[in-house]
Amino acid sequence: MSTVGNSTNIFWQESSVGKLKRQKLLNQKGCVLWITGLSGSGKSTFACSLSRELHTKGNLSYRLDGDNLQHGLNKDLGFKAEDRTENMRRVGQYALRSTSVYKSLVCVKDCV
């Protein structure tokens, strides 16, 4: 048993299908590409083009876009410093889980 926040009954659940088995099935390894830059600098355009090219070459990919995440995962966050930090923490955790659980490659647009 472990303690997470105020909870003492949270257990990590191991999967019988691990990362190596998924990599072998998909014939590719997972990774995260986090694209950062100023607003309007072309991050989304680049991420869309990269995702399309990877798909064309037969690679699975998934693109997370900061603006899109504001409609769901991060809809309760604003643009204060602490909200931006929480935004990056959430997106980072999602991306980490995605590459090791079900996504083969995740392209992440700057979510700050």
Mass-distribution shape: flat
Largest sheet: 3 strands, parallel
Using only C-alpha atoms, the radius of gyration works out to: 16 Å
- Which residues form runs of ≥5 with pLDDT under 50? none
Per DSSP E runs of 2 or more residues, the count of β-strands stands at 5
Question: How do the SSEs run, as a string of H and E?
Answer: EEHEHEHHE
Helix share, percent: 40-55%
Mean pLDDT: 80
Number of helices: 4
Distance between the termini: 35 Å
Portion in strands: 15-25%
- Order of neighbouring strands in the sheet with most strands: 3-5-4
Oligomerization status of the protein chains? single chain
Given the helix and strand composition, which structural class is it?
A: alpha/beta
Question: If you had to describe this structure to a student in words, what would you say it looks like?
Answer:
It contains 4 helices and 5 strands, in the order ββαβαβααβ. The protein is α/β, with parallel strands linked by helices. A hairpin with a 2-residue loop joins β1 and β2 (7-10). It is flat and about 40 Å long. The chain has helices at residues 19-26, 43-56, 66-69, 81-101, and strands at residues 2-4, 7-10, 32-35, 62-64, 106-109.
